[in-house]
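Q: What structure does this chain adopt?
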Amino acid sequence: MLIAALPLGTLAITAVLLTYSLATLVLILLLVWLATWLGLRWRWAWLDRNGERLSPLILMILGLALVVGL
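A:
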C-alpha cells in the first residue's frame, strides 16, 4: 500500500503509515488484553504443572514449522 501511495504525495504516504501503525497498535493491545483476561478468568492448573514441559515442545513445533516452511 505504501508503494501505491507514493505517486499521491507525502500526505498519502503519511496517512498510510499512520493508519498501519494505529491498526498494529490496536491489534497488539487487543491481543494482550484478551490474553490477560483469559489468564485471569480461567485457572489453568494443568498449565502450571506442565508449563516447563510444554514450552520446549511448543518451541520445537514452531522451529519445525519454520524449517518446513509453513
